Amino acid sequence: MKKTSLYIFILIASLCFPLANAQNKISVTNLQCEKLNNPEGIDVLQPRLSWKIKSSENDVKQTAYQIIAASTLDKLNANSGDLWDSGKISSDNSINVKYAGKALEGKKEVFWKVKVWTNKGEAATTETAHFSTGILNYVDWRSTRWIGWDKVSPQDSITMHARLSARYLRKEIELKKAIRSAKVYMMGLGMYELYFNGNKIGNQVLAPVPTDYTKNVKYNVFDVTSHLKQGKNAIGTILGNGRFFTMRQDYKPYKIKNFGMPKMAMQLIVTYTDGSKETFKSDESWKLTTGGPILTNNEYDGEEYDARKELTSWNTVGFDDKNWKNATFVYDPGGFPEAQMTPNMKVMGEVKPISIKATPKGTYILDMGQNMVGWLQLKVQGKRGDSVKLKFAESLQKDGSLYIDNLRDALTTDIYTLKGGGQETWEPKFVYHGFRFVEISGFPGKPTLENFVGKVVYDEMKTIGTFESSNATMNQIFKNAWWGISGNYKGMPVDCPQRNERQPWLGDRTTGAYGESFLFDNQTLYAKWLDDIEYAQTQDGGIPDVAPAYWNYYGDNVTWPATYFTVADMLYNQFGNSKAIKKHYPSMKKWMDYMAQNYLENDLMTKDRYGDWCVPPESLELIHSKDSTRVTDGTLISTAYYIRLLQLMKKFAVISGANTSDIQQYEALAKKMKSALNAKFFNKEKNFYANNTVTANLLPLRFGLVPEELKEKVFANIVHEIEVTYKGHISTGVIGTQILMRTLTDFGRGDLAFKLASNKTYPSWGYMAENGATTIWELWNGNTADPKMNSQNHVMLLGDLLVWYYENMAGIKSSDSAPAFKEIIMKPDFNAGLTFVNASYESVYGLIKSNWKKNKKNLEWKITIPANSSAVVYLPTTNASSVTVNNQKLDKSSTSYKTENTNIVLKLASGSYVLNVK
């Protein structure tokens, strides 16, 4: 008998986050978010536990499980569950199993394992998993004081292009006994690096993740046992500015939120071998200086580092800090301390430059070959006081110089001043850039490619999706999307990484987050972002367009706040996270009521701010179209979208167990608004909505607002507009593109969707690639439009393209009735225009594969379904005798199937299959 093995991961209550630990002897094969976060310091009382079953056999189903949780590893190994022994529970549930043992206390260790039974009559036991709880009571933080220095140094400036030196802090402590364990709980704002005895703690960068610090502050927890010793020890911290000390001081204070000077709060808890404990906290005995080498670190403008001012061994025992000042107690930022359950950012890869060219003015232009996000590592040798300037941009002008107009007033420049005496290697600590090209000036001698390495920085999350097809343009678009999405993950999803914006706009991710979830295990990032949105909600219910609300943009439109709802729905459908819906349901309902009370008139939602943002304009020089025939009525958009949200709220009410009166209210209002929308906007003679834009027709059609007998006629108008008016090109902006590709395919025009996806002429995603794009542009004409808004690394125009790649081309879609890919719907459009697709997706149950290729005579389809899951598989034939499953004739095999329209539909259990259709 083939052996069935079990692989496990931990998901945290309300955030559904997989944890892995290098100390755990757990295989990480096929785990979500492999080693993404240190499982230290979770602050939820009922963690959700999940595991994956991996087997080489077909048709493997879990029939029962038993979870054992213990306070020590020895107890767990002895199968003594002093915290929890679930006993054998008959269930096929292997994700999001809520911890139901003894109440968890703060700052404790938990070791656990699971035993499963399958339909194969065998049990498999995992190795040990581990997590620890964080600081669960605010009183434990209350005695920890925030320290810093709320003043500026002579070299600093509080201006539009603010300059503020990094704060260096240090403290020596003495541990008088042998150490068993030690953990540090760290809050450092805006960003920090933490050192013990000269060693940096953790591999994260730009930590912690950003929040509205007046509402909540994230703390990180690290096991630092190996970095401490009996006797004297040194702790060091560098504080950067991040989003806390806002980069634009005294500039539009009515718009841009500022939080104050950098500060920190820390606890170190040491447990000695005799069982006693000692706690060390931040206080005014710490020493501080602003005289270190980081002269300024400004997210928009860059970082300046003077190596002549380096503080040798400043974070080790014995350093002379007599000239440093004492840190002072400072006001706390106001936000409640929360454990950071989403991963920090990390250097996730490197890019080697492809060319370097001299310019007539004596500088050099470095080409990375890829529009990337992160920074440049510099290797240089020269005289003391030589200064190398690195200026970053996304593209070049015709004369080969940097194109910087689209950066607005962001200076995007790093400066390194040499100390002299040999080769020096440097990279910044507290900034990032969006760039492909770098202008290098002041370099001593002639720089070569070997002097530079690009460091790729984004949130530490696993790439869980792959896609390759027979169409080279579609493949390049997919690659561009990967680079654009990853680069804009910065502890929150931001709109762009290069200019003076970099804001978490909601409207960019309404459907984008859904598509992104096929490429990245982004569940904790988006669970955290839902919290950011709720924290930003006004007392009366308003939701901003940007959250956290670093910009004071409360526009009271529908389509941008709709992201709050669609992201929660994505987390449920893709990852099985119902907790996010239950948690945010009251705030969602509050916003729905707020909008209805203020903007609902005659059953129409009258408030819209952005329209169908970024419709392809009629002229390549325009940002926004001035042609009224391309512009969709705002009331139609907001009304249709509000009805869609009423539909989601009905679904959420069921999941949340809300009062049935809520459901009745949503149904009644949706019915009235549907009637009002059709009465106001539907043209009965010509069977289109409003002025017949593709978006005007798409929204009612996709959201089920068109009478059944008229759907095909409305769809015919969509097709006519695309094929005739716009000559086979896209004409939708951000709103319409969110539903365009799937709607075309669902109504039988996958070939037209394929044409839009594979076009190379304007406007199209392929046009971007044909014109040198290696990410996704903000505008369809991002190479020609006014530079005020032509970021070359945005993701908002992707719409539902990536969803369409996976669900409609690869055939990897989660069933509505069994979310999180418990049941997979595998129904590719084999006739859209591709001849092969090879895709994979690492779901919460395991790896899903769909690899098909076809010619005029045969379709071969290789699929993999993870254990404890199943699939409904659609084959494009009604002739069972033309089908083989693993070389067995379908009409003579035991495989169950049925005929549905023009397809044979199979229900397949887990395993690997080769399907052939003649």
UniProtKB/TrEMBL annotation:
It comes from the Bacteria. Residues 1-22 form the signal peptide. GO terms for biological process: carbohydrate metabolic process. Residues 358-458 form the Alpha-L-rhamnosidase concanavalin-like domain. GO terms for molecular function: alpha-L-rhamnosidase activity. Residues 463-809 form the Alpha-L-rhamnosidase six-hairpin glycosidase domain. Residues 177-347 form the Bacterial alpha-L-rhamnosidase N-terminal domain. It holds the Pfam family Ig_Rha78A_N. Keywords: Hydrolase, Signal. It catalyses: Hydrolysis of terminal non-reducing alpha-L-rhamnose residues in alpha-L-rhamnosides. It is an enzyme of class 3 (hydrolase). Residues 811-886 form the Alpha-L-rhamnosidase C-terminal domain. Its EC number is 3.2.1.40. PANTHER family: ALPHA-RHAMNOSIDASE (EUROFUNG), ALPHA-RHAMNOSIDASE (EUROFUNG)-RELATED. This is alpha-L-rhamnosidase. It comes from Flavobacterium agrisoli.
